[in-house]
TrEMBL record:
It comes from the Archaea. Its main location: membrane. This is APC family permease. It is a multi-pass membrane protein. Pfam families: AA_permease_2, Usp. It comes from Natronocalculus amylovorans.
Length: 767
C-alpha cells in the first residue's frame, strides 16, 4: 500500500525507540512504589513481568513482518479479531500512550526538585514546552525523531551502566535478601504494577511502515530491546535496593526520586548529576516515543475507515501524518495542564495488559484463520503454547491490579465500543481472521454432528402426543413425520392421546394409562387417507407388550396407539416421554398459545421440561411437498432439522432448500463459508438439495419471502427471554409469516447449551 511514508528507521533507531518507550517511569518512578508492595522481591517482579511480555513481543514481531504497516497492535487486533476490538485497541492505545507521554514529561518533577528546588513552580510550563517541541519535531521529520531517540537512549544507558558498575560494590547484602524469592507476599501485585514498564516493547510496530527491512529489523529490535531492558531493570533495581534503604528515604507510598537517592549513596555528587540527567533523558524519550507511536493510531484507523479521513493525510513536504501528530501533541498538552496525569495513568495500566492479551489472541486468529495473504518473514516459536501462557499470565495479573485500574480499562473499552457502534459499524464490511475461523469451525462441527446423526444405526422412539384440542390435520401430519423417520433408521412411533379428567382428591402423582384400540380420529379419516397412513391396526399380526395395538407400515417403522387420562396433560406428556425414554416428541404448535408470551403456555412448559427432542407441527393443509425450506435463524443448522427434512423429502419426492440470511454489508468470506457449509450438508442427504443465501437487513421478512413458495417449512425454536416474550421470537415470527405447514425443532442438547454467550456467537459470528 503506497502511503508516502518513508522507510527511514534502521535497526539502531528502532531499538532506541523501543528502549526509550520502556525505560522511563518504569525505572525512575515505579521501583519505589513496587517496593512498597513486595519489598526486595520487586527485583524478581521485574523479571517475571519481562517474561510475561515476551509472548506478546514474539506475536507482535510475527504479525509486524506480515503486515509492516503503521498502527502496530491496533492493526493486528483489527485484522485478526475484527473492527470492534480493533477500534478498542486503537483508541485505548492512543489514549494510554498520550497519558503516559504526559506523565513522563511531568514525572521528572522529583528529580528536578532534587537538584534545583527553585524550578518546581515552573515544571508545568517546562513540560508544556517540551511537549510542543516534540510535537513540532515529529511533524518535521520521523528520521530526526529516530536520531534524537538514539542519542537520548545512548546517554541514558551510559549513565545507567555507570550506576550499575559503580554501585555494585556498595551493595549491603541484608538489604537484597529475598530479591529473587518468587513466593514473597505481594509479588503478583508488584508484577502487575511494573508490567507497564514494558508496554513500549510493541510500540515500535506502530511505525512499522517507516522501518527499513521490517522483516528482519522489527523482530531483532523488539525482542532484543525487551531482553536488554529486562536485564537492565533487574540489575538497576537490585543495585538500588542494595545501596540505599528504601524504607528510610521514601514515604510509605514509595513515591520519590529513588534513583537520585541511590546514585548519591553509590556514586557521589557527580553520580547524582549523571543519574538525574539520565532520568530526565529517559522521561523525555518516553514522551517522545509515546508521541511518535500514539500519533500513528489515528492515522492507521483513518486509513481503515475507523476514524475521519483527514487523519490519514500526509504532509507534502514533511511526509508525516501532520494532523494525527498535532492531535496527539495537543491532547498531551491539555492533559499536562488540566489533569492529575499520574493518577489517571495508573487507572489505565490494566489496559496495557488487555492489549497484550489481544495481541496474542490476534496471532491465534491469523494462524487458525488460514488467511491467504498472511506470510510473515518471522514466525513465533512454540505456537500456540507461548500465546496461551502469555494470555493466562495477563489474566492472572489483571486479578491483582485492584478495582480502580480494572474500571479504568473497562471505561476506555466501553467508550471505544460506543464510538464504534455510533460512528463506524454501518460503514464497515470486513471482519477479522479469528471471526472467520470461528464461523468455519462452527460449520465444521455442525457438519460432523449431522454426519454422525445420519450414519447412526440406533433405533428411534417417537412419541406423537395429541390432546382433545389437537386438530385432525396436525395429528395426521405428526404421524406422517414420525413414520417417515423409518425411511432412514429403525423407528417405533407411539401415538398417544392425552385426555384431561376432573381433579381427584386421592389422585396419584403420575398419569393413569388406559390401553385402547384404534383411536376414533383414525377412523374418521380412513376413507381418504394416503398409503402411508396406518388406519387398521386390527389387521396387523404385529403386537407390542402390554396389549397396545400396533401396525407395521414400512420395513423400519412400527406405530402403536393408546390413550392416557390425567388431571394435567402437559405433566403427563413429560412423564411419559421421560419414563419411557422416548427420543423425539411431536406436538401441535397452536398459534393462539404462542400469543400468551409473557406468562408462558402449556407448550412452553413442555419445551422447558421434557428430556427429549421436540417437533412442533402446525398444519396448514399438508398433502405432500415439492419443496421443503429448511431455515436457520440462529447460527448453524441443527442436525435434526436436516434429518427430518431428508426423511420427509424421501417420502414426498421433494427438494430441500437450505435457506439462510446474511446482512447486506456482510463480508464475502461469510457467504463463501456458508456456501461451503451448505454443500457439505447436501452431500449427506439422500434427496436433491439446493442452497439459498440472501442478503437483507430484515432477516425475517427476507427469509419469509424465499420460504413462502415451499410446501413445508422447517425451522428452530428460539431460546426464551424477556425480549422474546414481549416482542416475539424470530422463528415464531417466521412461521407466522408464511402459509405453508411448519415444523419447529428444539433439541434437548441444543437447549442445554443455550445461553447468552452461545446466542452472541451464533448471531454475530455465523448468521
Amino acid at each position: 500500500m503506497a502511503t508516502g511514508l518513508k522507510r527511514d528507521l534502521g535497526l539502531p533507531s528502532v531499538t532506541a525507540i523501543a528502549i526509550g518507550a520502556m525505560v522511563g517511569s518504569g525505572i525512575f518512578i515505579l521501583p519505589g512504589i513496587a517496593f512498597a508492595t513486595a519489598g526486595p522481591a520487586v527485583v524478581i517482579a521485574y523479571l517475571i513481568a519481562g517474561l510475561l511480555v515476551l509472548p506478546a513481543a514474539l506475536s507482535a514481531s510475527e504479525m509486524a513482518t506480515a503486515m509492516p504497516e503503521d498502527g502496530g497492535s491496533y492493526v493486528y487486533v483489527e485484522r485478526g479479531m475484527g473492527p470492534l476490538l480493533g477500534t478498542i485497541a486503537g483508541i485505548g492505545n492512543w489514549f494510554m500512550l498520550s497519558f503516559k507521554g504526559s506523565l513522563a514529561l511531568v514525572g521528572g518533577v522529583p528529580y528536578l526538585v532534587y537538584i534545583a528546588p527553585d524550578l518546581a513552580e515552573y515544571i508545568i510550563f517546562i513540560a508544556l514546552g517540551l511537549a510542543l517541541m516534540f510535537t513540532l519535531l515529529n511533524i518535521v521529520s520521523t528520521k530526526s525523531t529516530g536520531s534524537l531517540q538514539l542519542a537520548i537512549v545512548g546517554i541514558m544507558i551510559a549513565a545507567m551502566v555507570w550506576f550499575i558498575l559503580g554501585g555494585y560494590g556498595s551493595i549491603i547484602p541484608r538489604q537484597t535478601t529475598g530479591s529473587f524469592d518468587i513466593a514473597s507476599e505481594g509479588i503478583l501485585a508488584a508484577t502487575g504494577l511494573v508490567f507497564v514498564s514494558y508496554a513500549g516493547v510493541i510500540k515500535i510496530a506502530a511505525v512499522a511502515e517507516e522501518v527499513k527491512d521490517p522483516g528482519k529489523t522489527i523482530p531483532r529490535a523488539m525482542i532484543g530491546s525487551l531482553l536488554f531492558t529486562t536485564a537492565l531493570y533487574v540489575l538497576i533495581v537490585y543495585v538500588a535496593i542494595g545501596v540505599v534503604d528504601f524504607n528510610a528515604v521514601l514515604p510509605e507510598s514509595g513515591e520519590g526520586a529513588i534513583m537520585a537517592f541511590a546514585a548519591e549513596e553509590a556514586l557521589g555528587t557527580f553520580g547524582v548529576i549523571a543519574v538525574v540527567i539520565a532520568a530526565l533523558m529517559a522521561l523525555a524519550s518516553t514522551a517522545n516515543a509515546g508521541l511518535l507511536s500514539a500519533s500513528r493510531f489515528p492515522f492507521a484507523m483513518a486509513r481503515d475507515g475507523l476514524a475521519p479521513e483527514r487523519f490519514e493525510a500526509i504532509h507534502d513536504k514533511y511526509n508525516t501524518p501532520v494532523l494525527s501528530i498535532a492531535l496527539t501533541g495537543g491532547a498531551m498538552m491539555v492533559m499536562i495542564a488540566t489533569l492529575p496525569i499520574e493518577d489517571v495513568a495508573k487507572l489505565g495500566s490494566a489496559f496495557q495488559i488487555l492489549v497484550f492479551i489481544l495481541v496474542n489472541l490476534a496471532l491465534i486468529g491469523f494462524r487458525e484463520g488460514a488467511v491467504g495473504d498472511y506470510d510473515p518473514e518471522f514466525v513465533a516459536p512454540f505456537y500456540p503454547w507461548v500465546q496461551i501462557i502469555g494470555m493466562g499470565g495477563g489474566l492472572i495479573l489483571l486479578t491483582q491490579m485492584g478495582l480502580i485500574p480494572l474500571l479504568g480499562a473497562a471505561g476506555i473499552s466501553v467508550a471505544a465500543a460506543l464510538y464504534y457502534v455510533v460512528y463506524v459499524r454501518d460503514s464497515i464490511e470486513r471482519e477479522g481472521a479469528a471471526r472467520e475461523a470461528i464461523r468455519r469451525n462452527i460449520g465444521d462441527d455442525a457438519v460432523k454432528q449431522t454426519r454422525e446423526l445420519f450414519e447412526s444405526d440406533s433405533s428411534y422412539k417417537v412419541l406423537v402426543a395429541t390432546t382433545e384440542q389437537t386438530s385432525t390435520g396436525a395429528k395426521r401430519d405428526m404421524v406422517r413425520v414420525g413414520s417417515d423417520m423409518g425411511r432412514l433408521r429403525s423407528t417405533a412411533v407411539s401415538v398417544v392421546e392425552f385426555l384431561d379428567i376432573p381433579h381427584q382428591i386421592f389422585a396419584e402423582n403420575h398419569a393413569k394409562v388406559q390401553q385402547t384400540g384404534t383411536l376414533e380420529w383414525l377412523a374418521d379419516i380412513a376413507d381418504d387417507a394416503p398409503e402411508w397412513m396406518p388406519t387398521d391396526p386390527e389387521a396387523s399380526a404385529l403386537r407390542t407388550s402390554g396389549g397396545v395395538d400396533t401396525v407395521e407400515i414400512a420395513s423400519n417403522t412400527a406405530v402403536s396407539y393408546q390413550r392416557i387420562d390425567s388431571e394435567d396433560h402437559k405433566r403427563a406428556i413429560v412423564d411419559v416421554a421421560t419414563y419411557r425414554n422416548y427420543d423425539l416428541l411431536l406436538l401441535e404448535r397452536r398459534a393462539d398459545e404462542f400469543h400468551r408470551r409473557l406468562f408462558g403456555s402449556p407448550i412452553e412448559w413442555i419445551l422447558e421440561n421434557t428430556p427429549t427432542d421436540v417437533l412442533l407441527v402446525e398444519d396448514r393443509g399438508f398433502n405432500g411437498a415439492d419443496e421443503i425450506a429448511v431455515v436457520a435463524t440462529r447460527g448453524a443448522y441443527d442436525p435434526l432439522k436436516i434429518l427430518i427434512a431428508d426423511a420427509v423429502a424421501e417420502e414426498t419426492g421433494a427438494e430441500i432448500n437450505l435457506l439462510q440470511a446474511i446482512g447486506k454489508n456482510a463480508p464475502e468470506t461469510q457467504r463463501e463459508t456458508l456456501e461451503a457449509y451448505h454443500n457439505e450438508l447436501a452431500a449427506l442427504c439422500t434427496v436433491p438439495v439446493r442452497s439459498t443465501i440472501i442478503e437483507t437487513d430484515n432477516e425475517i421478512s427476507g427469509l419469509a419471502r424465499f420460504a413462502q413458495p415451499a410446501d413445508l417449512l422447517i425451522t428452530g425454536v428460539d431460546q426464551k427471554g424477556l425480549r422474546g416474550r414481549i416482542f416475539g421470537r424470530p422463528s415464531d415470527q417466521l412461521v407466522d409469516s408464511v402459509e405453508s405447514t411448519a415444523i419447529m425443532v428444539q433439541t434437548h442438547d441444543g437447549r442445554k447449551r443455550g445461553g447468552v454467550i452461545k446466542r452472541l456467537l451464533m448471531d454475530h459470528l455465523f448468521s
